[in-house]
Design brief:
409 residues; alpha/beta; Helicase, Ruva Protein, domain 3; five-stranded parallel sheet; two-stranded antiparallel ribbon; 11 strands; globular
Amino acid sequence: MPKKVCSFCGRAEKDVNFIITGLNGFICDQCAQQAYQIVVEAGLGPDGGKRKRGGKFDVELADVPKPTEIKEYLDQYIIGQDEAKKFLSVAVYNHYKRLSQPDDESGVEIEKSNIIMVGSTGTGKTLLARTIAKLLKVPFTIVDATVFTEAGYVGEDVESILSRLLQVADYDLPAAERGIVFIDEIDKIARKADNPSITRDVSGEGVQQGLLKLLEGTIVNVPPKGGRKHPDQDYIHVDTRNILFICGGAFDGIERKIAQRLNAHTVGFNSVQNARSIDKSDLMKYILPQDLKSFGLIPEIIGRLPVLTYLNPLDREALRRILIEPKNSIIKQYKKLFEMDGIQLNFTDDALDFIVDKAVEYKLGARGLRSIVESIVMDAMFEQPSKKVDKFDVTLDYAKQQLEKSHLK
């Protein structure tokens, strides 16, 4: 009797569990399993290629929190920014509804609404994304637009966005194709000049053009390991039609573009009429898509980000609340650090007011609060764990003295 050898992998009968005999060939149990996976991924399996329920990212629409509930969850971690929270909550809820949309005869297909959030540094764009990621049951990843370059240049290709989404989804392709991507620092890929240049804008306009099809919806060949270092690897074909993209950027200096459009000069004389009607302290709320175009985003990419929202600049009251109120507020974090050494850390009201005043002076938003508090308690974090104390108070005089010593003077 002829020796049985798998017609696919060439392994002999003794090297596998069993071999299935056909008319003119053989197949081992391992190749049969791989063949089944290929058939299922092609959408031709016994369940029509649909994912079986019970996976890590499976969710029914009835279980999805409503927009008001999503906003209430965000309120626990982020102070203010009600407008941006509202837009984000609705967008995420509608994303779930699109994924749960039944096939009916009406022919109505809900299109996705990608979002762009604009706000100065330290107002909470990335924190909004990170916080909402905790709540979601779809794969969620945050990528930084500053690392992307045009294909063929040193840096990452835009396809690596989907590589990261696949990693988050544990390479579950159907789950990744229903995910959400937050692209941070989108303003850093703005066109460098108003007029198209004869030289390549490698990390600017070229990257925007690479993102166009990705945002709209297309089949993208994604290298599973990312990058171009493994040209022989098999590509994963990812359909981006159901991936929701949320973009965020500081757009530093865009207020000048808004002011020019509103004819409200930020410096110099102004008409009484404009002075009455325009809030100079918060020009960001008047932002329109044409301002993004003036800043350097190409019209095609603006059209693929139809929902435009803004984040308010943080005033003194908001910074004070950020310091102490959220679940993971900065003061609570430092109290926890001292508590782990058995020390109760306390800040007087005067010291907290001083920290907020300095943050307003430095104009770094909520990030400025952390650097100031860190400078104030640095010596205490160095010395106190070695001392036999169970309490430490940060007073106004101590805060001033420590800040004088630090580089933040």
